[in-house]
Specification:
Layout lengths: L1 H29 L27 H23 L9 H6 L6 H18 L10 H11 L2 H13 L5 E7 L5 E7 L14 E7 L6 H4 L3 H10 L3 H12 L1
Antiparallel strand pairs: 1-2, 1-3
This protein binds manganese (III) ion (MN3).
The site of manganese (III) ion has 7 residues, from helix 2.
């Protein structure tokens, strides 16, 4: 019997180790804003270019990731090179954004915002965890109300920008929108907090498939939200 138990524990050990490693990787990825900027790397897209078809088309994904996002990363690295910012974190830079140049603001925001955007999309992305759903009902009344507020934030953003679902200092959820590549972590944002969901409403995010029909794109985005990831981000912030 003892021998059997030992064999069982040994058989289960690799699984336990694997689960631990996976958790660490997820945690590290969520802490991109706590990494020293000169140690940042351009992250891989977490899925294939066609993974979000037919909601987000392959060509849009390819251009968006390999050209737009890559350019924000490269330009951000060039903008901080040889300055004191190299040894700071994105959290520190965003919290003092108003002190820095437009190149740092636009490209630092562009780099971070897209990392979050790729992460929060998945076909059949499930639904919010019980804890997140309870917080959504408390803050907005219902999932439908959140959807309306969030999509409206994207649809009514004039020109280019983002819609966000974030957590404020009190641990409460709120919806907002920012222009250009700003985000709620920045001191220049009207409503400040930590974003757990971000929707890019720049034309480059949807024009090839949806042309001028931004509302159709926002509906498509809503249907590919990776609620498992968004829930994990929420729970990590409020625990
Ligand atoms: Mn974009």
């Amino acid at each position: 019997m003892r021998k059997l138990m030992l064999m069982l524990s040994l058989a289960l050990l690799p699984l336990a180790v694997f689960a631990g490693e996976a958790d660490n990787k997820t945690n590290n990825k969520n802490k991109i804003t706590m990494t020293t900027i000169n140690k940042l790397v351009f992250p891989e897209l977490p899925y294939a270019y066609d993974a979000l078809e037919p909601f987000i088309d392959k060509l849009t994904m390819e251009i968006h990731y390999s050209r737009h996002h890559k350019a924000y990363f490269d330009n951000f690295m060039n903008a901080v090179k040889g300055t004191e910012l190299e040894n700071k974190t994105l959290d520190e830079v965003f919290a003092n954004m108003s002190k820095y140049s437009p190149a740092v603001r636009n490209n630092g925001g562009g780099f971070f915002n897209h990392v979050l955007y790729w992460e929060v999309m998945k076909v059949n992305g499930g639904k919010p965890s019980a804890k997140l759903e309870a917080a959504i009902v408390k803050a907005f009344g219902s999932m439908d109300e959140l959807k309306k507020l969030f999509l409206d934030a994207g649809k009514t953003r004039f020109g280019s920008g983002w819609a966000w679902l974030s957590v404020n200092e009190k641990g409460e959820l709120f919806v907002s929108s920012t222009p250009n590549q700003d985000n709620p972590l920045m001191d220049v944002a009207e409503k400040k907090g930590t974003p757990i969901l971000g929707m890019d409403v720049w034309e480059h995010a949807y024009y090839l498939k949806y042309q001028n029909k931004r509302p159709d794109y926002t509906e498509a985005f809503w249907s590919v939200i990776n609620w498992e990831v968004v829930s994990k981000k929420y729970e990590a912030l409020v625990k």
